[in-house]
Amino acid sequence: MTGLMFPTDLDAWHRWQRSRHRLRQLRTLVRRESPPAVGWLGSRPGVSPELLAVIDATTPTQLASVIRPALAVQDHIPTAVLAPEPVAVEGWSWHRCTEAPAGLRLVVSIGHHLPLSRLADHWADRAGATKVVVQHGLVTPHAPPVPAGAEFLAFTAADGEFVSASRDDLSVAVIGSQLLWQASRSRSSRSPSGDTDDPPVFLGQLHGSELPRSVKVRTVEEIWRATGATYRPHPAETDRLSRWQHRRWQRRGLLLDQERGPLLELDRPVISIFSTGILEAAARGLPAWAHCSEPPRWLEEFWQRYGISRWGDGPTPAPTSPPVEPAAAVAAHITKLIGVTDDH
Domains in the chain: how many in total? Predict the structure, then answer.
């Protein structure tokens, strides 16, 4: 596969997502309509924002990809953040918000597939504002499409080509990954050679729609039987079926990582199917691999695109760091697009 499954049709992507989760589909049918998105808008007091940074979750990836660059330009560009909850920013005030700020010139987000980012995308359309989409994770063919006419800031040239395949309305710039940049500067004391007696940690992805749950379960159990791995549930593995699977594994003797501290503090080999954590661990110098029971072709192409090693081969090499810190590169790109002058 040479690009996204749904390169432009966000509604088709949502239908596909619902079809992969029967309970989610049922909830959609019984609700007549979803309530309007309501977020928290934050800024320095008295600011009339021209730049709006929007996140739908206060996850490390979204904070690193979107919020950090936005805060880097706030001394030059009137900036606000739309978030599901207030974010700790010194000197900022927050209030509940359903209406677009006046005077918007640029909206930066991770896309328009989640409630707040979709709301901000509508605001951008009404205001004629520029849209900047920052890649925040590794891209599979099942990723949502990028908004029409957006500037897409990609990890790599290959990612930019993959997301923009069959489209001529996107502008692409390569800036790298802030999360991987930070990981590369938090090197582990372990050897990346893979020569260790410590059992690996399997980074869970039961919540994802890309693969059948049965495939993911078999994959975990194969690694557990072969290595004695510990399972680290993804933070989104909170649905009833995932919790049932966790309990079933525990009854059979599979250890779960109950602490779930920051991934940057992990100091053991890592295995997963296609988690960004594979490259994050490799960037820190930890042995890291991918594994899947009977991987589909798209997954093998995904591993190849990111240089991810399969379990049984040598560990995944550390990804190449860009010459400029990605957050600084995003900030510079935003500044250029919005046309900041010395007397702004």
Answer: 2
Length of the chain: 344
**pTM for this prediction:** 0.90
Kindly state whether residue 183 falls inside one of the protein's structural domains. no
The DSSP secondary structure of 178-196, one letter per residue, reads HHHHHHHTS--SS-TT---
Q: Are residues 212 and 158 both part of a single domain? A: no
Residue 186 lies in a domain: no
Write the CA distances from 252 to 71, 225, 292, integer angstroms. Answer: 47, 11, 21
Residues 78 and 155 in one domain: yes
Q: How confident is the prediction along the chain (344 residues), in pLDDT tens digits per residue? A: 579 999 999 999 999 988 876 544 444 433 444 556 789 999 999 999 999 999 999 988 899 999 999 999 999 999 999 999 999 998 999 999 988 999 999 999 999 999 999 999 999 999 999 999 999 999 999 999 999 999 999 999 999 999 999 899 999 999 999 999 999 998 776 655 555 678 999 999 999 889 999 999 999 999 999 999 999 999 889 999 999 999 999 999 999 997 777 888 889 999 999 999 999 999 999 999 999 999 999 999 999 999 999 999 999 999 999 999 999 999 999 999 988 644 44
The answer to whether residues 328 and 269 belong to one domain is no
Question: Which tokens is 273 given?
Answer: 């199917």
Residue 142 lies in a domain: yes
Q: How far apart are CA 5 and CA 1, in angstroms?
A: 8
Question: In terms of domains, do 159 and 209 share one?
Answer: no
Q: Is 136 domain-assigned? A: yes
